[in-house]
User: What shape does this take?
Amino acid sequence: MNWYAMAFSKYADFSGRSRRKEYWMFNLFNALIVVGIVFIGAVLGSEDYVMYPLGIYVLAIIIPGLALTVRRLHDQGKSGWYMLVRCIPIIGGIWFLVLMCTDGEYNSNLYGLNPKQPVDNEIQDIGSVEV
Assistant: This one.
């Protein structure tokens, strides 16, 4: 749940980098929430009870979802415009899935530091001598 909340804390932040775990946990929680809304609507037996909450939820997650996807692409050193790869029939969706599953660049890139590495490099400094 922490990863889901992190995406909302960076609501419209299209700069920086995001890890695979943050991206996939956000999508997992989105899927679970959508299934829960549809299940509740099915139990109540009316489409009206499903469409309004579902529509409001989808509107609420559009911008954080786009921002998270752009940051995920930045982690691989790619521009956010690579999201348009999905528009290519058949191959685009597969290519985009591969991009989202691929590990990011190990070192810092044009878009920022590696989110997997700690900012403080104190451990690497142990035993080094400053001249």
Notes: Residues 2-111 form one domain. Residues 48-75 form the longest helix (28 residues). The chain has one domain: 2-111. The radius of gyration is 19 Å.
